[in-house]
Amino acid sequence: MNSSVRILGLDFFQGSSTAAVDAIRNGGLLVAPAAPALAEMPDDAVYAAAVAAADLCLLDSGLLAWLWELRHRRKLTRISGYQFLIDFLALPDLTDPASSLWITPSPAATERTRAWLAQARALTFPPEAWYVAPQYPANAVVDEALLEIVRARRPRFVFVGIGGGTQEKLGAWLKAQLNYKPAILCTGAAIAFLTGEQIPIPDWADRARLGWLARCLHDPRRFIPRYWRARRLVSIYRRWGEQFPAQRARPD
């Protein structure tokens, strides 16, 4: 039987990546929050509520796993969004061209993803299965145009491949608007590792929880500031532990 562990008020799945695929393939919201986004939980009520609304939460953050292990002296099972996506794309269900809707951050990302899926997985999806997300305001991730498409097509799987912190808000909003239950998969940049848009992460680096380091070495100007800000997660975990972080009051 698969279990979970509660950290910062979130129940992180403790099972294999393939077990996670089986647990979510028939519907629900999946998130794999990274350390930089988790570090914003006390200051971003919309994000905090979005990850709390997930049906399945993967422990993608090596830093958060390490902090818990240091306190409890017990090893956790970490599943990266990258590994989960690899396993999910092996599902035979995806061979149905009508099964999926792919949300990407740009037309270029759409073309890279389409090409990779066709070449590496022999999966092809029609033009209407692709949606380029607009730039969403930080605290108002609402997309009526996307909602209309999902309601009309009723895909079984919705792949949300936009930036961390925003994708969870979009996924939670979409889940709340629908009268059926697709699998909404917020795996963010995971597909970019596969398509080559971002540097591929070797399996050993993913298992060793060093994916962040590979990204920093590949694009230091972009990723070093991002992961440096994630250091706040250390003090957040020390204060809140297994409890959901209280929201900080914002100045008027």
Observed structural traits:
252 residues; alpha/beta; two-stranded antiparallel sheet; 13 helices; globular
Layout: helices, strands, pairs:
Elements: E1 3-7, E2 10-14, H1 17-24, E3 28-31, H2 35-38, H3 45-52, E4 56-57, H4 62-72, H5 81-88, E5 100-104, H6 107-121, E6 130-132, H7 144-153, E7 157-160, H8 167-177, E8 183-186, H9 190-195, H10 203-207, H11 211-218, H12 220-229, H13 232-240
Parallel strand pairs: 3-4, 3-8, 5-6, 5-7, 7-8
Antiparallel strand pairs: 1-2
Helix pairs in contact: 1-5, 3-8, 4-13, 11-12
Q: Please, could you describe this protein's structure?
A:
The protein has 252 residues and is of the alpha/beta class. It has helices at residues 17-24, 35-38, 45-52, 62-72, 81-88, 107-121, 144-153, 167-177, 190-195, 203-207, 211-218, 220-229, 232-240; strands at residues 3-7, 10-14, 28-31, 56-57, 100-104, 130-132, 157-160, 183-186. The strands form 2 sheets. Strands 4-3-8-7-5-6 form a 6-stranded parallel beta sheet, sandwiched between helices. Strands 1-2 form a two-stranded antiparallel sheet. β1 (3-7) and β2 form a beta hairpin. α1 crosses α5, α3 crosses α8 and α4 crosses α13. The protein is globular and about 50 Å long.
